[in-house]
Each structure stands twice: as structure tokens, then as C-alpha cells.
Specification:
Layout lengths: L1 H9 L9 E3 L2 E2 L2 E3 L3 E2 L4 E2 L5 E3 H6 L15 E4 L4 H11 L3 E3 L5
Parallel strand pairs: 1-7, 7-8
Antiparallel strand pairs: 2-3, 3-6, 4-5
């Protein structure tokens, strides 16, 4: 999702103290937009952020205030892996969920 990363890139260095996400998620991505059918929840690849994209955007690490005690929180099913990757790449405290809500 280019818009999400563009917003982070537009911020001044050291200005992001935390990111909060609340929504549907899967073990390897967060849904920014979600559709429903009778069988399942759906989203196309333009509507979610994958854990792999975090590494691809590691150059944005300077945007984060690494001394912050405030957690970046990812509320949604299976967000633990996403939160851990976010912490590893951007060096800020994070929290996520292990199981579905």
C-alpha cells in the first residue's frame, strides 16, 4: 500500500513516536480495506501491508523517535509477528496479538 508508506516518508526525521493499527489482520499482513463475501473476508494486494514490506521500507527508520517509551500497537488477529518485525526494523516498542480475538 503505497499511500501508507508515503505518509510515513513525508514525516520529519525523529517525529513518529508510535503507530496504532486496529482492524483485521492475518499472520503476514494488516488489512487496510476489507470486503466480505458469504465465504470469507477478502482484500486485494493494494489494500494490505505485509510484514515483508517493513524490511523494504527500512530506510524510513530515521522517521521514528527510537527513544520513545510509547508502544506502537497493532490490534487485530495474529498481529504479533507484524509487531515484532516492526520493532526489529524500526527500533521502537511494539505490541500485537498472538491469536484471533
Amino acid at each position: 500500500m503505497g499511500g501508507f508508506w508515503s505518509v510515513l516518508a513525508s514525516m520529519a526525521d525523529g517525529s513518529i513516536s508510535r503507530v496504532w493499527y486496529s482492524g483485521h489482520a492475518a499472520p503476514d499482513h494488516l488489512f487496510l480495506s476489507l470486503g466480505h463475501s458469504e465465504e470469507a473476508c477478502t482484500a486485494n494486494s493494494n489494500d494490505y501491508i505485509t510484514t515483508a514490506e517493513i524490511i523494504l521500507h527500512s530506510h524510513l527508520a530515521s522517521k521514528f523517535k527510537t527513544s520513545t517509551p510509547t508502544m506502537s500497537e497493532f490490534y487485530g488477529c495474529y498481529t504479533k509477528n507484524f509487531a515484532q518485525k516492526w520493532n526489529n526494523v524500526f527500533g521502537v516498542p511494539t505490541a500485537g496479538a498472538i491469536n484471533p480475538a
